[in-house]
Request: fold
Amino acid sequence: MAEKVKRKPTLTEALIPFIVMAFLLGVGYGVFKLRIEVLLLTAASVAGLLGLRLGFNYKEMQTGIMESIHKGMPAMSIVIIVGMLIGTWIAAGTIPMIIYYGLEIISPQYFLITASIVCSVISLVTGSSYGTVGTIGIAFMGIAHGMGIPLAQAAGAIVAGAYFGDKISPFSDTTNLAPIAAGSNLFDHIRHLLWTTTPAWMIGLIIYYFVGLGFEADPSGEQKIDTILLTLENNYNFSIFLLLPLLTILYLTVRKKPAIPGMLLSSVIAIVLAYIFQNVSIQTSVHAAVFGFSADTGLEVVDKLLTRGGMVHMMEVTLIAFCAFAFGGVVQVTFVLDKLLSEITKYTTSVGKLIASTVATSITTAVITGSSFLAILIPGELFAPIYKEKKLAAKNLSRTTEDSGTVVVPLIPWSIAGVYMAGTLGVPTLEYAPWAFMCYLGFIIALIYGFAGIKIAPKIREDETQIGS
Reply:
């Protein structure tokens, strides 16, 4: 039997899978809250039907899917190990100790800047903007009520701080996801991300400082923080040795050692410290590594903050990535993506235009889907070949998708993050959004860098999943 003749898609045909995906995610996920995984697989099926029309068989498309997943496996492995790290660090008391001393720096005279800094530190340590806003964020809003501080300003400072930490934390799912989608590696991605994120964060802090100079605090708000501090103090034995898991990661990162062995070593050290300092059995710590730590301190707000982590929890992130890679694999092997890229490259004649196209695509995806995951995955899959062709490091792409994807989502009223933040803090999304400076200044700085040629890294090696790329 003669093999079916293959042909490349027309532009109209190439657009069909992406239009279908935009509709499915915009309506199915945005309106009806259907599971992203099913919607992505449905879009992949549509892409597959188009592939059959173009002359490709199922086996060829399956090979494309497997190759797409294979490229992301090293980074997805890190995502899973991060879950182990979080669970064991909480069991050891490392994360609770950092939270404890972070809370102690609160200064009532400088509420906005303090709230943003403390939320930044806690989110950086926990890797969770949701957990930070839902716990410490609520406490800060209580203080804001008592002090008479405009609630929109307070909520904006809290959200900006929480997303600063979430954006650059090695424990954050989106921070791990961005290098997976772009083909870079976690630690180079974070270092490169600091060039856009730090200025955006600092500008916000400067504004909070001057705006908040006249505010005065109410003692009742401080009592909530004191209760949290007392609870942490009563449930954990703090020691400088509890910083060993963190120092291990930092040392091995500076020495440019492989990430996963360093994370595993850090987790083992944390398990030992949990046994020595917190009297937590080895069995309990191992359980926390797999399923996450379950806190029982007697104070609900602290339990919510510390009940997290575990490799199983991180599997949800990797499952979404698998489904996205299924779509990506089909559109790549059938030349659908090549057709779109050839059209896009007509307009990306400079680095600045390429960065601008990435920003626009990420924000559009965020607005349509309301999902930070998809605002990273889709542009990452779409633009990775273009950055490679233009000899630009993949970390430029992963940074830009975070600048215009992760932190923009909480500013969108119909997104899950926007709904969560507004409901939790009691301030409408569009009211706190202007005060969450870090969340939108990042992509503005990325655009400036792109057109000015500032901090745009060239590609120096073929395999950019290695540290030092």
